[in-house]
Write a structure and sequence with these properties.
Number of helices of chain A: 18
Order of helices and strands of chain A: HHHHHHHEEHHHHHHHEEHHHH
Strand order of the largest sheet of chain A: 1-2
Distance between the termini of chain B: 57 Å
Radius of gyration of chain A: 23 Å
Chains: A mainly alpha (about 575), B alpha+beta (about 675), C mainly alpha (about 190)
Oligomer: heterotrimer
Structural class of chain B: alpha+beta
Number of strands of chain A: 4
Radius of gyration of chain B: 34 Å
Number of helices of chain B: 23
Shape of chain B: elongated
Amino acid sequence: MQTELLGVIVTFVLVLLMAFPLGKYIAKVFQGERTFTDFLNPLERLIFKFSGIDPHRKMNWKDFLKAMLTINLLWFVYAFVLLLFQGHLPLNPDHNPSQTPDLSFNTAISFMVNCDLQDYSGESGLTYLTQIFVVTFLQFVSASTGVAAVVALFNGIKEKSTSNLGNFWNYFVKTITRIFLPLCLVVAIILAFNGTPTSFAGKDTIITMRGDTVNVSRGPAAGMIAIKHLGTNGGGWFNANSAHPLENPNYLTNMVEMMAQILIPVAMIFALGFYTGKKRFAYVIFWVMTLGALILIVPSMVAEIGGNPAIAKMGIAQPTGAMEGKEVRFGPAYSGFWGVMTTVISTGSVNGMHDSYMPMSGTMQLLAMMVNGFYGGCGVGILNYYIYIIIAVFISGLMVGRTPEFMGHKVEAREVKIAALVTLLSTFLIKGGTALAAYVFVHHPDVGWAMKPTAWLNNSGFHGFTEMLYQVTSSNANNGSAYAGMTGNNVFWNVMTGFVLILGRFLPIIGPIAIAGLLASKKYVPQSTGTLKTDSLTFGAMTFAVIVIITALSYFPALALGPLAEYFSVH
Amino acid sequence: MERNKNNRLFSGDLVGGALKHSFLKLSPKIMVRNPVMFTVEIGTVVMLAVTIYSYTVNDPTIGNFWYNLSIFIILLLTVLFANFAEAIAEARGKAQADSLRKTREETPAKKVMRVGDIFMNEVKVVPSSSLVKGDLFVAEAGDTIPMDGEIIEGLATIDESAITGESAPVIREAGGDKSSVTGGTKVLSDRIKVKVTTSPGESFLDKMIALVEGASRQKTPNEIALTILLASFTLIFIIVCVTLKPYADYAHTTISIAAFISLFVCLIPTTIGGLLSAIGIAGMDRALRANVITKSGKAVETAGDLDTLLLDKTGTITIGNRKATHFWPAPGIQERTFIESVVIASLADETPEGKSIIELADVKGFKAPSLATDKDVRFVPFSAETRSSGIDLPNGMKIRKGAFDAIRNIVQKAGNAFPAETEAKVKEIASNGGTPLVVSLNGQAQGVIELQDIIKPGISERFQRLRKMGVKTVMVTGDNPLTAKFIAEKAGVDDYIAEAKPEDKMNYIKKEQAGGKLVAMMGDGTNDAPALAQADVGVAMNSGTQAAKEAGNMVDLDNDPTKLIEIVEIGKQLLITRGTLTTFSIANDVAKYFAIVPALFITSIPTLQALNIMHLKSPSSAILSAVIFNAIIIPMLIPLALRGVAYKPIGASALLRRNLMIYGIGGIIAPFIGIKLIDMVLALFM
Amino acid sequence: MKKYILPSIKLTAVLMVLLCVIYPLFLAAVGKLTPGGGNGETVSLNGKVVGYANIGQNFTDDKYFWGRPSAVSFNAAGSGGSNKGPFDSAYLADVSSKIDSFMAHNPGVSRASVPSELVTYSGSGLDPDISPDGALVQVGRVARARGIDSAALRALVLSHVQGPFLGIFGPSKVNVLKLNVALDQKK
């Protein structure tokens, strides 16, 4: 057991230590300072020249968002079409079929929004062409979109008074060339040398020792798995995701994949400090997020290590913990850690099947996705956290007797309205989507759809409810992990989560950028001793309290009827 | 007439009126201004329908009549409590303003009659209410001034104690900055002709009453922002409650309408929603209690944000004017001789400095001789040219006192040397922030009188307090930079404007504002008006000119320059009260969830009993307890809303910690205790 | 928005060359240098490929060590777990019957010495490993079925235990396929 805990602790500590210098490097990249990767300058110039882009043009928040949304829309259309016709296109050695329109819709959105919810199985639902030209491509660009967006926020925080949030194209391209591509090469090569396939060879057929004829799906997976984690995407090459022995062959790859997904979200927090010069502010955010993550991780790990109490009653041994849905080479301790970390981070890759985790873990995973701002996804985690900051600033500003202000700009009705709207949206999408599903499931179980609602769920009772809640929550959080027992591949779920995905992605980007733009263009108010310091631990605690209260108030009833009821049914 | 500064929160007559208004405010037209309470009202109406329905039809999914009726009554009370909070705040503000207004109602006015635009010499006694703007009236010793106005002719001593509570009479005269008179004050001597500057119902007081009464009350920007936040919380809870229906269907649980509405009303921030407008009104009311009339609620709010205060030195930082503190005779001159000549030279000096010289001599045991009867005495008044004043006595003595170089000129012209010791003393006094006044007798230097500013006791502590609030203080003075610097340091202000001209104030304000700061200043003169208008908070003294009063957004009835400090605290208190009660209101929800959610599901999902951590007796007692707690917390917090949460200048982070502990943690714990207690009481009956 | 369309298209095209052509082809080339040549590492018995080292196989015969239950019957054309909730009654009945079946095939073994991974589905359905305890508890049965000395078999199992990564990180494990291949080779 010690070796299992040690693996978790060393992973976590090591990645936090690596994130610090990386954050410094990222800040330098976006500030245009000299870095050791400047040899890539000609490549970037070539990209901009070919695309007809001036990377130095200033953009206000509206221009910035327009550029971002335009290219995202383009990707969606392109991905949708490619998936719809993949069966007839090359690089399809396994002769997999085209996706249905509703599945294409869901898949295209899902990867565009960095969610990677997969209503298909990787082995049979995609071709090598779409795995690379849709999935891998979108995994790179969606993560870079998030990072570029948060740099706009950095500019809004850094400048005293400006309407310039920077150039979207510049940040976007540099994120790919300077951050993701180099790191992906490192991770992919480690994976390749540990057994993850890289060749374009199709499915293999073998006769086993027992004489069964089975297939083994393969493909150029290592490169995709690298960006899947570094870009906090989470969508796997294979259906079982990182539980699959080819996607995640051993404990080393397991640690590398976990570190890869934590690395950039945490580095972005430090980058915020270095970029804006407000280091204390960044450190306070870091500690609040780390504390929040730990509060979610520990109960889950304890529950998983403790094993399934119902199985314990049967008298067999659970020396390492609850093994259902988990892999022996990782162990329940690490899988418990991974399960929460992947939801904290908004990656959504799994190395065990969440559907079979203990209800305490389910609660923690759901909470992590509902908050979606303890680290969070690449860039977007900070954007989500920023919304909480604005609300915390507003309430605590009042409590110290001043019209609330953040970084020297007064927070007024318009900003509060946007922040409130974004907060409201999450609740609406998660609770509304789940309610709609529950309504259809209860009142129209046998409606004449291709897949009847009665067939949706793999579990009954509280756990069945949690499956639906989890699917919608994961979509809204752009997480992508799932209670895989629930069959998401039908018109209802594909379309419903498609809309949740797209709203849950872009409004929480548009909102913070708009607030940052509006605030930055206001008159700068210098600090005085009466000003609330947003880089103090007190304010960190306040933000934490706001997160806890908003999350608890919004989701308590849903959690009570799902994982909590399940938990209390045995404990 | 002594004003009724009643600090009791609920005096009988106010409560009666407020109760009546609580019901009148149930009108949806009024309620809709407050989205949170409006939704509660809708819930109440639905509950009424459910109650009636459950009386006529026996439907088990609806619940029994008595239970529905209780919920309905509690919800109605919730709305009424909120209305009462607003009504009592309004009533208090109004009572305060009324007591001010009473002082000027229906006094006889000696109106100067006119034909067209020509004023006649005829004076007629009319009721004050018939005066309109532009009319002239006459007031003589013994008269009560019928209406606010500006003296256009004459000078009078006036007793303003009815308004300010200050018993010492003041002098008001035509022209200049002391030309304004206030209705209700009394003329003690002389006769003045006054032009009415406001029409009945348009005085600042009237405007303020209108603000308090709600008809013209506008939400302040911060109130709007907070309302948006509260409305979004309300929407979140609408979502929570609406979605609960299909969730419950999935769990095969029936939830009654009463339970749904109860959950909803408990969750939405009714506590702050119900008290929000009362808090705003109470802020204005507190300002009024400090004898400050605010022209808008926004001004009070802005006061809490002030970064910079411009304060006049005289009267604010120092007591009145400079005073003589020492006599320093020149070498070879007897102290007694020196004092004698000084006193004689100051006999005709009516300036405060001159008087203070005689006072100091008195203390030293020297009685001033009376020279008033002597016809041959010639007084030489101060002139800017000679920069000295003095006296020529019949016996040929010529005494002069004045600025150092002016007197030195006289001495040197007379062919005498100016003693080095005296010159050194002069420099010493100046460098200590004092003003040296040199005296000569027949062209010979006699010595120096030291004049010093007396800094008000306790003022530096107040500046310290302001500094902790983050407010920078700036002293404005006509003194030379050296003196100004000395006094500034001694009093502990952060900055000063020396040799200030009116436009210097304006420039300073603009400079500060350009740096994003909010600036307040106080002023009384017409030449202060532009700066008062420019300042974010401009406080005009009631004794000041009409122009000044129009330009500022607050009027201080006490003419007390230190009032700005109080105003800042009132503004801060207003915001803090809003913030803390919002926090409290939302923190309360945690306990309410633990009361209601298990109650809703316990029958169909017994395992959720584990969430009933308060061990409430039954589902219906749990729901009732939560709703009752939710209702009664409003009246319990009315005193806090009206008095305001205390402001402590301990730095923003410490203040946040303190308020988070009290209202955040307290807000989580209090309802657990409250709901449990109510449930224990209910358990006796259910 | 219009002015951003053309740059978007061009940028997408040029990035595709970088990310979808150069990047995967470079990795495929690197993969050729790896032990499995980028195709996955295989295991042979008597010169014949009998499986992939990292993909578990179905063993039900008493003379082989059994791996974990698989929700996809160890057919790596797909992958996945049972996705059953931990307290689901049907699921618990399934586990219970798996225990009974294990006990029937392994007489003399105490319930408390059966580690749960032998009766619970793996996440991938392809888990190649079991714990050392999970292998040792089967030694008696396999030795009996093969008529070999259980102490020697035990030694064989222990020689196949892979300790924690770098000796300090993570669990110990036994690759079932490799162990069974070794068993057959020993014969």
